[in-house]
């Protein structure tokens, strides 16, 4: 990484954007390593799999806690509401369910209290709506029928957990 930035000439006016994918842990390791050597006008943007509310803390080098290479240089795409943000009607149910299962499993209620949990809940909510539609139409619950039901969804609400969802046969 250090050699790449040393061999390439970037001016201070250049806007350098580096995209991150993969998992959160590997993305934050990469971000920390790259931004440590990148010029100050280099920024990183991560997709929803590589970013959540814990990303800034994970981007710190545990051996150099005062060094913060990602501060104001790491950005993320988060198409889901933040866990616990009760401004969204369905979040109340997300929090109740998460707390119920943490307590049932004798785990800390902080465990899984994050955007990834909201993402999973939203995915399940759409699956549930598709299955309910099949039951209402007296159709067999199969993979192809669930797919077909999802493809009829147009601007389906997730109670604010996401923007309204539309699926098509081309998705």
Describe this structure in words.
The chain is mostly helical and 171 residues long. The chain is built from 6 helices and 3 strands; from the N terminus they run αβαβαβααα. Strands 1-2-3 form a 3-stranded parallel sheet, with helices on one face. α5 (115-136) crosses α6 (143-150). It is elongated and about 65 Å long. The model has no long low-confidence stretch (mean pLDDT 90).
Summarize the structure.
Helix content is 40%, strand content 8%. It has six helices and three strands.
Mean pLDDT: 90
State the total count of DSSP E strands: 3
Low-pLDDT runs of 5+ residues are: none
Q: What strand order characterises the main sheet?
A: 1-2-3
Order of helices and strands: HEHEHEHHH
């Amino acid at each position: 990484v250090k050699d790449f930035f040393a061999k390439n000439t970037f001016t201070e006016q250049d806007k350098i954007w580096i995209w991150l994918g993969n998992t959160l842990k590997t993305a934050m390791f990469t971000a920390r390593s790259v931004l440590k050597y990148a010029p100050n006008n280099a920024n990183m943007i991560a997709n929803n799999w590589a970013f959540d509310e814990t990303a800034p803390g994970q981007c710190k080098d545990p051996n150099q806690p005062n060094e913060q290479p990602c501060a104001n240089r790491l950005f993320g795409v988060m198409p889901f509401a933040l866990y616990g943000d009760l401004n969204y009607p369905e979040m109340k149910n997300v929090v109740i369910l998460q707390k119920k299962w943490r307590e049932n499993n004798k785990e800390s209620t902080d465990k899984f209290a994050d955007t990834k949990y909201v993402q999973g809940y939203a995915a399940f909510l759409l699956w549930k709506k598709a299955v309910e539609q099949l039951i209402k139409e007296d159709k067999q619950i199969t993979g192809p029928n669930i797919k077909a039901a999802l493809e009829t969804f147009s601007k389906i609400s997730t109670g604010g957990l996401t923007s309204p969802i539309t699926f098509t046969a081309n998705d």
